[in-house]
Amino acid sequence: MSDVISLADIRRVFTMGDQQFEALKGVSYSVAAGEFVAIMGASGSGKSTCMNILGCLDRPTSGQYLLDGLDVGVMNSNQLADIRNRKLGFVLQGFNLLARTAAVENVELPLVYAGFNSRERRQKALMAIEQVGLAGKENNHPSQLSGGQQQRVAIARALVNSPAVILADEPTGNLDSTTTGEIMSLFTTLNRQGITIIMVTHEHDVAAYAGRQITFKDGKIISDSQTGQLV
Predict the structure, then answer these.
(1) Would you say residue 184 lies in a domain?
(2) Cα separations (Å) of 49 from 36, 63, 83?
(3) 213 occurs within a structural domain
(4) Which domain holds residue 172?
């Protein structure tokens, strides 16, 4: 199975005044197509910095990042925006839905930027909404949906472009335990359908849904459950 994500000796140094802080210290790992990976670590461990690089929202100071075989490091801002829209789907803790816009129109947004016509957008969005179990709610606004339903809309939006990877950043952070279980079951179902998922979480019970856990500490990977041993 081919690697959809490949990081090689990724370093990220932030400069604050005359001080430098190395958030990532030579991180290397790959994610094969179809994997479900949880990235864990305490605040300041480097997991969020790594997620921003994976999402093409930040660039590494050095090292190489290949996304679906493409070298992200050589891309300009417009190319990064394009690959972000075509190759990545984002699911965030705060849902990030447009409040005055129906669910189906929220789901259509990535397709607008991708240049699909209105008929294609609507057809694809309705299929994604059905895929996440919200058929019949497509015309509801976020205020008419529960937190779990809003996150399902966000997941549908992430799916609609058939991305190479879904990046989920604390996707259950605003949900109660029952709804968390429902959302994680949905992620598990989507992964079984072949969708690659990388999820940042600080909750061990949430991470347990993933088939692999990578743990960060002080800018380095200290464990990777795929090997079952400290690295």
Answers:
(1) yes
(2) 19, 14, 19
(3) yes
(4) 3-97+163-230
